[in-house]
Amino acid sequence: FDEEFVGWGGEDVEFWERCQTRKVWEYANLPMLHLWHAAQADKRAVNGLGLHTAALLNQKQEISVDERIAARLDHINELYSCGGQCKGRIACGHNDSSLIERGLVSTIIPVYNRAGMIGASVQSVLDQTYRPIEIILVDDGSTDDTLVELERLAAAHPDVIRVAHRENGGPGLARETGRLLAKGEFIQYLDSDDLLLPQKFELQVAALREHPECGIAYGKSRLIDNEGNILREISKWTGCKYEALFPALLLCRWWHTHTPLYRRSLCDQIGSWPKYQPEDWDYDARAGALGTRLAFCDAVVSCHRNHDADRVTKRPYLQYLPQEAWFLPRLHACAVAAGVSTASSEMQQFVRWSFSLSRRVAALGFIRQAAELLDLAAKAGGRRTLGMSMMYACKELFGWRVTGHLCSVFEYFAKRLRRKQSDGVAGG
Q1: Nearest to 287 by CA among 241, 253, 326, 311
Q2: Between the chain's N and C termini, which has fewer beta carbons within 10 Å?
Q3: Euclidean distance between CA atoms 176 and 163, whole angstroms
Q4: What is the pLDDT of residues 223-234, one digit of tens each?
């Protein structure tokens, strides 16, 4: 904000005009209430400051937005210049303990009730051929012996490992706690049941240094069982060379959380991890919306462990549906910001996904989400299909509750048909 505005009014209008020169998209529905009240008695009375700021806004608006941005940047550079030590009359927020350390890789591991597995995950980071590194273990309100194990690991490696504690809030919020504590130039996210291979940091840091235009380096990930046996040499689509996250990210999250290595500067641009799942897919979608370029390392760099212990991704699908409905509008907004066209095959597949999910949540009684997803499918596809038109007509004629029951019947017979077709293929 321009601190030349003092007293009341104008600064938010001027700030928003500068914001609109950047990429802006509808990120979420945020209902707001602005309560009317009589004007405060002193709003314009104290030395005429209210009148002064109104006049100042008019003066500012006579200057081009680009010139105002340039003036703000010059002013900020003067105040916040930081070359290892902060200068200027306003501190920039850095201090000797929080300056980003060049070359450092910060690994952030959220941990919840994983006393038996976390040791192997931590050891896979300690075994990296690259240095310097730090490991931030975030205990997400564990109720077993996990905290004892974390403290033991930190005591054994006090120069590398730090432990943070928070109330249970899920992996997204735990990763965010770690992100805010990280000091590294590069950020590695790792789940407490997965493993990194020894040369991961060495290969991916080198790739990012070789390609300064790229914000993420990634390699191949392997699927293993709890004993280390290889179940699949290349997991998901990590063996494919992509230059950007989209449009493939519209179809699935084609890598694992441990596959990429991020520049810290990109993580700062992406912003906070969300609470709701799929928080990891959402995080990468926002990276894709920024136009992030990818550097591919043609080597296996990490292992995804398939085990019988609790995993978020093993939740019953019905528990996942409401959060999937929350996520799809966000994914679409990010894809549009990344330049994915309506006509692309990936976007058309997304349209079918949104429409199918609309029917499913309607059948479960999630009326608001069903309406939003139906509108999203029509918007993303650029038109209404016959099926969408029929659902809109049914909604208008009978209301959403009856439409939901009809969707339930439809999904039942569609599921039976799919099973019959699947059995036919298997029998053939």
Answers
A1: 253
A2: C
A3: 14
A4: 998 888 899 999
Residues whose CB falls within 8 Å of the CB of residue 198, separated by 6 or more in sequence, listed in order: 124, 127, 128, 129
- Paired strand residues for 140: 166
Which of 104, 125, 130 lies closest to 201 in space, CA to CA? Answer: 130
What is the pTM (predicted TM-score) of this model? 0.72
CA gap 237, 259 in Å, rounded:
11
What separation in angstroms does the CA of 259 have from each of 119, 164, 187, 306?
Answer: 19, 23, 12, 15
Beta-bridged to residue 262, according to DSSP, are 187, 216
- Cα separation, 123 vs 160, in Å, equals 12
Q: Please state, in angstroms and as integers, the Cα–Cα distance from residue 243 to each residue in 11, 216, 416, following that order.
A: 40, 10, 40
Is 275:167 a contact under the CB 8 Å cutoff? no
Q: How far is CA 298 from CA 85, 243, 301, 428, in A?
A: 40, 13, 9, 38
More confident residue, 403 or 114: 114
Q: What share of residues in the chain are helix, strand, coil (percent, to 5)?
A: 45, 15, 35
Q: What is the pLDDT of residue 94?
A: 39
Closest CA to 121 of 254, 257, 295: 257
Task: Give the separation between CA 249 and CA 260, rounded to whole angstroms.
Answer: 14
Q: Which residues pair with 191 in a beta bridge?
A: none
Q: Burial level of 342, CB count in 10 A (0-12/13-18/19+)?
A: middle
Q: What pLDDT digit, counting tens, does each position of 181-212 carry? A: 999 999 999 999 899 999 999 999 999 999 99
CB atoms within 10 A of CB 373: 25
Which pair of structure tokens corresponds to residue 104? Answer: 């450092």
Give the DSSP letter of residue 304: E
- Report yes or no: 342 and 380 within 8 Å, Cβ to Cβ: yes
Residue 141 CA to residue 167 CA, distance in Å, equals 5
